[in-house]
Amino acid sequence: MKQALLLNMLVLCCTASISAQEIQTGESNRGGTHPNVLFIAVDDLNHWVTHLNRNRQARTPNIDRLASMGMTFTRAYCAAPACEPSRAALMSGKRPWTTGCYKNGDSWKNHLTEGQQLSKQFLQAGYYVAGAGKIFHSDQYFPSEWSEYMDSRGLYVAGKGVEKDNGYHLPLSADLADDDLMDWHTVNWCIDKINQSREQPFFIACGLHKPHLPFAVPRKYYDAFPLNEIELPPHQENDLDDIPEAGRKMANPAGDHAKFLKSGRWKAAIQSYLATCAYTDMNIGRLLDALEKSKAHDNTVIVLWGDHGWSFGEKQHWRKFALWEEPTRTPLIFVAPGTTKAGSVCEHPVDLMAIYPTTCQLAGLPVPAHVEGTSVVPLLRNAIEPWSLAAITTHGQGNHAVRLGPWRYIRYADGSEELYDHSSDEYEWNNVANRAQLDHVKSDLAKYLPQDKTLNQK
Ligand SMILES: [Ca+2]
Ligand SMILES: [Ca+2]
After folding, report:
1. From 78, 83, 101, 206, the catalytic residue
2. How far does the centroid of ligand 1 lie from the alpha carbon of residue 319, in Å?
3. Is the pTM higher than 0.90?
4. Confidence class of residue 26 from pLDDT cuts 50, 70 and 90?
5. Residues 255-258: contacts with CB under 8 Å, at least 24 apart
């Protein structure tokens, strides 16, 4: 095993100028070149975590604990507001407009090149690379890109006895135990891998399925959020009036929103999401506790991300699948011993394309040429480092949002636009795209969109 590692590392040295003397194992390496990596992917976790202050009802002490160990990004955005394209972009390092994987159903394996994904980069460098749960859409993966992957047969993604499309609340007739959900076992499996003794450093990817629908978790998590205390998110009933047709179509007010107004269960849905996030937070806490007790505790880079945001009736929109702040923003936390300071906060907008190159750089690995994102290691060292890169989100061919400084600029495939100024409008209620004096802002932000004009049209 050691020989294979050294051989891999020597091959790597030719391209990355890493000397063989620098190769150390995950257990003994303190602040060395190749730390372990704990990579935590959370499905459908929006910015309702306590430390981001978007929703004061949120209770996520363990995610907040992780944030306090390193740097949290307060303005982190997905590359695409849906599971499949978001994860395909993040893990491949290539944007939707490069791969053509734009939406759920665009079978990601047909759009990516086997051998290019982030985990493979660590495998090639001699790491032990383990995956569990949902890293890519539908828990699929290329077996050649992992040392091993958790066998999830017999486990219940939605919860034992819960229908996959059960929706927004635990059925009144049912109850669940913590271990009736797959995430419990995913975390157990990852803890086992953290504690196994081996010569190489590890890259362990823990893909949690919650808080994705159905919002069904053990009843005790609901008890922490009494329904009569639940508050609706800030919203305006006429918010869509200044939004172009393409945006109103994405909002789809006649869909989920009309149903919730009719059923009167808007607050119940929010209660259920908060409860489901609390279950997820509990699992993340177990993972962190195990890491802290392990030999890897002081030499492990931790990255946590959600694959996109979630709307709860803002703009009469529900779920992801749109280009505004709520469906695109997600937690992003890096803990990197020797690089990040405990409790640091970065307010520059960044997108999740940064994860591939940043994780490689923190681990002392080369960043492959195909990777389109930019490493945020300079920001991890200094949160107020000048930063001129924008965060970009794409939803279907030709529809993009650009986030830079206080601005969000949306341009749809038909050329229609929205512009929001977060310095005075953090909920994006006032579309100022038609103000002539802001034309220069729109044209500055449009420069970040694909230069090939066919990619900006449908
Ligand atoms: Ca998702
Ligand atoms: Ca509006």
Report:
1. 83
2. 10
3. yes
4. very low
5. 255/318, 256/318, 256/319, 257/313, 257/316, 257/317, 257/318
